[in-house]
Amino acid sequence: MSSLCILRTMRVSAVVRDRPIHALDHWTRSNSQNLGSLSLRRWLHGSQIQHHGDVTRPVPGTGIKLHFKDSKGNLVKTIEANEGDDILSLAHEHDIDLEGACEGSVACSTCHVVLSPEHYDLLPEPSDDENDMLDMAFGLTDTSRLGCQVQLTRELDGMTATLPSATRNMFVDGKKPTHH
User: Fold this and answer.
1) What distance separates the 2 farthest-apart alpha carbons in the chain?
2) Among residues 91, 151, 144, 155, which one has the least CA distance to residue 119?
3) What pTM does this model have?
4) How far is C-alpha 126 from the chain's CA centre?
5) What angle do CA 44, 28, 39 make, to 5 degrees?
């Protein structure tokens, strides 16, 4: 009776095609004499493969334009992005030299950018954590922000993000060796 209950449970929770019980299965070894030549059915679950990092970019001419400039004011690259994208992720995606050592967790100032004043005023105020990190940024200005914290909106179309001439990575720059 108990082996019949187990078989019934397995039939409900499993199958698409018949297959004999595998001889190495612990349950099968201990109960094979009770099952005889019965087969088990298993339900196979199929779902679409998910691709991590799969981002659909806007059709040229329809996205939010973002201009990256170097510290001397030379245009590095102009890109088009979706609403909600952050500057750091976009820079990494388009091979623009913006470090982002903490990977966007607001624990460094290596993604520091200087924004155009007219667009800076359209952004929400920086958080206390962001202001604390900006205090450590090299070449801080009145329109400085962390690239990981600036999410694009339609209002920011045409914004310029200028990369500073240097960054301060406290872990690397200020690292003191420890004895083991």
Assistant:
1) 82
2) 155
3) 0.64
4) 21
5) 50
Query: CB of 145 within 8 A of CB of 164?
Result: no
Q: Which of 163, 170, 173 is nearest to 111 (CA)?
A: 163
pLDDT in tens, 85-124: 999 999 999 999 898 888 889 999 999 999 999 999 999 9
pLDDT tier at 53 (50, 70, 90 boundaries)? low
The single residue listed with the structure tokens 């003191």 is 176
Q: Under a CB-based contact definition with an 8 Å cutoff, are residues 126 and 149 in contact?
A: yes
The span from the CA of 165 to the CA of 154, in Å, is: 28
Question: Residue 111 to residues 29, 49, 55, 74, 86: CA-CA distances in angstroms?
Answer: 60, 33, 21, 18, 11
82 close to 58: Cβ distance less than 8 angstroms:
yes
The residue that leads in pLDDT, 80 or 18, is: 80
* 3-state SS string for the chain: CHHHHHHHHHHHHCCCCEEECCCCCHHHHHHHHHHCCCEEECCCCCCCCCCCCCCCCCCCCCCEEEEEECCCCCEEEEEEECCCCEHHHHHHHCCCCCCCCCCCCCCCCCCEEEECHHHHCCCCCCCHHHHHHHCCCCCCCCCEEEHHHCECCHHHCCEEEECCCCCCCHHHHCCCCCCC
Nearest-5° Cα angle at 120, 146 to 153: 85
